[in-house]
Amino acid sequence: MMGNVAYLTLKHASTLAAVFVGLYAGLLGLFTTSFFQAHVVYLHKIQMTWFNDLDVPESFGFLRSQTTPFAIKSSAGGPLYAWHILPVELYRQHEAVLLAEPSGFASDITSRFAFKLLCDDPDVRLVIHMHGAAGTVGSGYRVPNYRALSAGQPMKIHVLTFDYRGFGRSPGTPSERGLCLDAILVVEWAMHVAGVPPSRILIFSQSLGTAVNLAVSEHFALQSPPIVFAGGILVASFLDVPTLVATYRVAGTIPIRSPLARFPLLFNYLSTFIKEKWLSKDRIAGYIRANEANKEKYQLTLIHAEDDYDIPSHHTEVVYWHAVNATMPRGITYEEFHEVRQHSRNDLGAAGSVMEWRTKNGLIREELLKTGLHDVIMGNPVITLAVMRILAAADPAFAIQ
After folding, report:
1. Which of 173, 203, 236, 373 is the most exposed place for a label (fewest CB within 10 A)?
2. Is residue 128 a contact partner of residue 361, using CB atoms and an 8 Å limit?
3. How confident is the model over 346-359, as pLDDT tens digits?
4. Same-domain check for residues 288 and 312
5. By CB neighbour count within 10 A (0-12 exposed, 13-18 middle, 19+ buried), where does 247 fall?
6. Global model pTM greater than 0.85
7. Number of domains the chain contains
8. Are 112 and 106 spatial neighbours (Cβ–Cβ below 8 Å)?
9. Does residue 138 sit in helix, strand or coil?
10. DSSP state of 76
11. CA angle centred on 67, ends 65 and 70, rounded to 5°
């Protein structure tokens, strides 16, 4: 009797194992297709705005007419859905005028008073926000993130955020090239339509957005003449998609490809099927080399929480090494840099650690926090301080306005 029970138990266990292996093999097979890869990398069909209307920003906690929904038109692709968000003190000073205007989507944003406030102030600063995978401009922790971005100077710091193609109300299908073109279009709109010079623009990004940020920043740094912004902030960056997929776990528990790491030939073979690699480690190096060669002033801040289970903080540590390596003609190995890091990093205890790397032209700062997860960190004071640190360094007078 006991033997039969053991046999049946073993049989059921073997069946379940076979089913699991079959499902896992099927998942890996799907991952070799471009269609499935796009949905895994971008998660653009997951909007996470529930039953709220993006054209009614008040339903996300904004004041009436504080946020203007509008579209940035493109001659090459479809329009990009965007929000222009006023800082709260500036809103307070002009509340009566703003309340008298219609709220909601602006077919012509240039006719709105909020746009006038952005264009007419020679001391205005603009944070262009590039969000991560999944969701829309109104999803999750992005709304408190916008508040944190402008909190340091609530009279002067405007926020411009947008949905890439295929996300939210921006039509199209996401791709690496497409998202880069979208972000370039938004930056050009800010410079040429809103009239904000690059020296007063800061590009903030999180997760997938960090890869977009680096691609766009490198693109403009390689122009003739080069265009360099006040600075850039990368929160929860990653080396590249192949490396990210190798370590990624759904909800922090279910691995996608990490079980294959013990089979290098199979692992490397499957990596050849990844179409869009988002090589952030190469782009950050290209961006810094261009600025060093052109003797352009630049600032980058990399922030990551050690308890981030979506993208391990080790990614930012290695991205940071690639950035530092690009500043040195002979380079520095990761092992050598690890030794430098041990002596140069400022331990802040429960708050984490900070390291700065300065050259004659630039400053690259790494902040590793003990806590903050992948998204919660975006509404924390560390973001406000990072914005103000960059803007004040770019123009010391700005900090005392």
Report:
1. 173
2. no
3. 999 999 999 999 99
4. yes
5. middle
6. yes
7. 2
8. yes
9. coil
10. S
11. 105
